[in-house]
Amino acid sequence: MSLSCKRLLATSAKGYKSNQQFNVFDRHSKLIQRSRVPKANPQESRKVDYLKNEVAIKTIERLAFITRSFDRVLDFGSHSGNFLKNLCEESKVPENGDDVDRQIVEQLNKDKKNIRSKIRELTMFDSSEALLYRDADESFNKDFEGKIVRQIGDEESFDHECLEQSDQYDAVISNLSLHWINDLPKTLTNINRVLKPDGLFMAAILGGDTLYELRTSLQLAELERYGGISPRVSPLVHLNDIGSLLNRAGFSMLTIDTEDIIVGGFPDIVSVCKDLQLMGEQNSVLSRANSLPRDVLLAANEIYKALHGEKDQNNNTTLPVTFSVIFMIGWKKSEAQPKPLPRGTGEVNLKDIL
C-alpha cells in the first residue's frame, strides 16, 4: 500500500475530524533541521539553494501560461523566499550559450516581469523563522513592486490568522515543502478552503524515485553488513496518487507532470549527505535510526560508485543525485469554470478523425 493511501485511511471521511492521524514524520525534528544552518551559517545555507531555485524557475515558467491577475498570493512553505528571489532577479545567459539559450533567457525575463506585475500582495508562510527571514534584507525584496508579508506558523495546523479565513487568496504556490506533511489530504483540503472560487493551486513536491541512488546504496550496504535495513530515506508520494489526492481535496481541471532534476559531480556519499543536511532535507521519519554506522557508510559509498558512478573529464568517479519533482496544478471549483458537455452531444465522430 502506498504512503498516500495510508494517509487517506488514517483520516475520517467527514472533514478529517478524526483524532487518529497517521504520522510518518517528526515535525519538531524537521523544524530544527531546517532552521539550524540558516541561523548559524546563512552563507552555507545559500550554497545549497540550487534545487529550490531550479524548481522556482520551473514554477515561474508554468505560471507564465496563465493570463489572469493574482491580487493575493500565498507562498505556502516558502523557505527563504526562493520563488520571490527568482521572480525578481534577472536570469543570465549561460557561458558559451547560443542564440537559442539567449532567446529562452530573454523570454524568461519577460515572463518574470509580467508575473510580478500581476501580484499585488505576496504572503510568505513557513514554520522556520530563521529560514523565512534569512534573506529578508536582500536587494531582490525591493525589486518587488507589490506588498510582501512574512508569516511564521505550522504548515499542518492551519491555525494562523492568515489561514483562518476561507476564500481569501487568488493563488497558492508551494515548492518543495509538502513532502514533509504528515496529513497531506487534510492540508490540501485546507489549501482549497483558503482559495477564492476558481483560485489556482500550483505546487511542486519531491516524490517517486527521488534519491534512489542513495536509497538503494544504503539498503544494499546495510543488508550486507547486518542482514536488514533501516528507514534511512524518508518515504515519498507517488505520481499516481497525486490526482486522487487533489480530487479528494476538491480541486478540478488538474494538470500533473513530473521532471527529474539530476545533480552530478559529488565526490563521495558523504558530500551527498552533507548537502542534504545543509538543505534541511535529511531524514526525519519517526522510526529512523539514531546513527549511521561507519562500516555501512563506507560500503554504501563503494556500492554507490559501482552502480551509479560517472566519470568526469579527469577520469575520476563522481556521484549523481536524482530529484524526482512532481508538478501539480489544480483549480478550486467554481460555477464560472468551463464544464464538459453532456454525453452524446458531440458533433464529430472520432472514428472519422483517427
Structure, described:
One of its GO terms (cellular component) is mitochondrion. It comes from Pichia sorbitophila (strain ATCC MYA-4447 / BCRC 22081 / CBS 7064 / NBRC 10061 / NRRL Y-12695). The radius of gyration is 22 Å and the shape is globular. The protein has 14 helices and 8 strands. The chain is α/β, with parallel strands linked by helices. The two termini are 38 Å apart. The protein has a domain of 234 residues: Vaccinia Virus protein VP39 (Rossmann fold, 3-Layer(aba) Sandwich). The N terminus is likely disordered. Strands 1, 2, 3, 4, 5, 6, 7 and 8 form an 8-stranded mixed β-sheet that branches.
Short synopsis of the structure:
Keywords: Methyltransferase, Transferase. The protein has 354 residues and is of the alpha/beta class.
Notable traits:
single chain; 354 residues; alpha/beta; 8-stranded mixed sheet; 14 helices; 8 strands; globular; disordered N terminus; methyltransferase activity; Piso0_004591 protein; SAM-dependent_MTases_sf
Secondary structure topology:
Layout: H1 3-9, H2 27-40, H3 42-47, H4 50-63, E1 70-76, H5 82-88, H6 99-118, E2 119-126, H7 129-132, E3 147-152, H8 161-164, E4 169-175, H9 184-194, E5 195-206, H10 212-226, H11 239-249, E6 251-266, H12 269-279, H13 294-308, E7 310-311, E8 317-332, H14 350-353
Parallel strand pairs: 1-2, 1-4, 2-3, 4-5
Antiparallel strand pairs: 5-8, 6-8, 7-8
Helix pairs in contact: 4-5, 9-11, 10-13
